[in-house]
Amino acid sequence: MLVGVAGGIAAYKACHLIRDFTEHGDDVRVIPTEAALNFVGAATFEALSGHPVSTTVFDAVDEVQHVALGQQADAVVIAPATADLIARLACGRADDLLSASVLVATCPVIIAPAMHTEMWLNPATQDNVATLRRRGVIVMEPAHGRLTGVDSGAGRLPEPGQIAEFARTIIAGHRVDHDWHGLKVVISAGGTQENLDPVRYLGNRSSGRQGFALGEVAAQRGADVTIVAGNTDALPIPSGASVVRVTSTRDMHKAMNAEAADADIVIMAAAVSDYRPASVADSKMKKGAADEDLAHLELVENPDILKGLVERRENGDLKRDAIIVGFAAETGDAHTTVLEYAQQKLLKKGCDVLMANEVGEGKVFGQPTSAGWILRKGADPVEVEPGSKQVVAAQILNVVNEILER
Ligand code: C5P
To answer: How far is ligand 1, taken at its centre, from the CA of residue 283, in Å?
Structure first.
């Protein structure tokens, strides 16, 4: 395994990451950039990895090191990746040993960015990240929190333990020639919208990020991934996944039933409108006393797609051993905790796995991060520490994989 380290203050955290990998038995070669050595000395990386360290293509030329390291790697994990390194990789530069090795590597490349929020959000960086993702590079979402100075925001390096766990999920998928090769995974993502009239709708704040992250990780494991996406146009389509776009709950219901028929894993990550207007006006509804439609909406209940999928499995309309995963967005109240509500929901819906999120006050919905519990029939809940939706996706799919392996 290659661990790349770019020149940012978070470079010191790469030491914990390298330690984590070596303790799990990985043979790690560290390639820092020249700038990284301003933060951590080569001696530290050499001692931690047990291998010599260089930054340039002109060392060990007789061993053709600039090609050999990338060719031999089973994974490249770069943490931290700075805006400058991301720009160089997006351009396909090979002006130091790390960028040259990435250009040679055909194994999974996982990048954990760390930089100030402004640099991360700059369109130049976002375009470079999109370019890398389109080429199949796995770019982790940076964490939110304290940055180098007094400022805080998006751009913090995810915790080394999270990067290592996430990388292991991706690598495990690739090592055995994609462990989910031949499996069909169908995921609903985003929120449904219910039309009131030609210009208005009832909807929710779901961004679709969790569903798309699940699609990204499942595709990295080699699965055939279909995302049934409600209103998520701004999100990039994960490499290797296809998307069916829907608007209303009834559209999503139809698409999920059709796509799930031959699926091995079905995940309802979408936020589905439970009700829709009883009728949709042909022309824009007007406010005012003469027309009270807007003040008193009559709603009718939508189908419960998740519950319906569990019933379809029982009736033989889905594969009998299909694994069905649901989500629960809960706030809890004075009498019942989020976890208790989620446990009730697992039983009510009849799915095999349920990811329970505590929502509200800027938590989870529309945010890049998530946390909560993964519940499974007949097993203790697993607490999920706050992390990016990709990291959470990897943990959910690891639980699904345990069920697959039984
Ligand atoms: O009942 P509640 O909306 O809290 O359940 C959440 C789970 O059920 C999610 O997995 C969501 O995608 C799914 N759901 C559904 N159809 C609905 C409402 C929710 O499939 N009409």
So the answer is: 30
Residue 21 is labelled as binding a ligand? no
CA atoms within 13 A on the CB side of 21: 32
270 ligand 1 Cβ < 6 A: yes
Q: What is the pLDDT of residue 175?
A: 60
Residues in the chain: 406
Residue whose C-alpha is closest to residue 180's, from 136, 220, 240, 210: 220
Atom of ligand 1 nearest to the CA of 256: 20
Flag whether 327 is marked binding.
yes
Q: Are 6 and 84 in contact (CB under 8 A)?
A: yes
Mean pLDDT within 178-188: 91
Q: Whose Cα sits closest to atom 16 in ligand 1?
A: 304
Closest CA to 286 of 193, 200, 194: 200
The mean pLDDT of 248-265, rounded to a whole number, is: 98
Pick the atom of ligand 1 nearest to 270's CA: 12
CA 89 to each of CA 67, 84, 95, 129, 237: distance values in angstroms, whole numbers, following the listed order: 16, 9, 10, 9, 20
Pocket probe for ligand 1: among 306, 341, 343, the residue whose CB has the most ligand atoms within 8 Å is 306
CA-nearest residue, atom 5 of ligand 1: 328
Question: CB neighbours (10 Å) of residue 38?
Answer: 13
Letter string b/e over residues 241-252, b meaning 16 or more CB atoms within 10 A of that residue's CB = bebbebebbbbb
Q: What are 109's strand-pairing partners?
A: 76
* Averaged pLDDT for residues 207-222: 92
